[in-house]
């Protein structure tokens, strides 16, 4: 999602009638918002009893952002830029889930190598596929792919955020650490 947003959001805005410079600023706004979101999401995901609400909230941000792009591309431009920026928190969430699902450093390294390798390979095809579809269908094909990818992302995130019993640990949520 992030690679497609970086590669194509400004083009979409420009095609919708937003001046080129403003389209660039919208992309910058979206990317700038991803920075503080990236700092908050991992902490939030690790402090909740389950990270699933974070998975759903970020997916809903992407969904809402894409829907605003389709229904109000110019009037809602700042809204979709903000929503896509917040949705960009899915990347640090994915990295956090790797650590939450691993018991040992070796397991973390193995899972991380698989998830990031497969994830980057899949993500790298996104902008190319969107470009190909855009050339053939306008924005219809790319949005169909984005909605399908979002459904896949939500399903994988939901599965990755499921409660996992660990040997020697109770199924209850960990006790919060007292701050002195």
From TrEMBL:
Entry-linked SUPFAM superfamilies: MFS general substrate transporter (SSF103473)
Key words, A-Z: Membrane, Transmembrane, Transmembrane helix
Family matches, as InterPro entries: MFS (IPR011701), MFS_Cyanate_Porter (IPR052524), MFS_trans_sf (IPR036259)
Keyword Oxidoreductase on entry: no
One Pfam family here: MFS_1
Superkingdom in the source lineage: Bacteria
Keyword Methyltransferase assigned: no
Transmembrane segments: 20-41, 53-74, 80-100, 112-135, 141-161
Record-level Gene Ontology MF annotations: transmembrane transporter activity
Descriptive protein name: MFS transporter
Organism of origin: Modestobacter versicolor
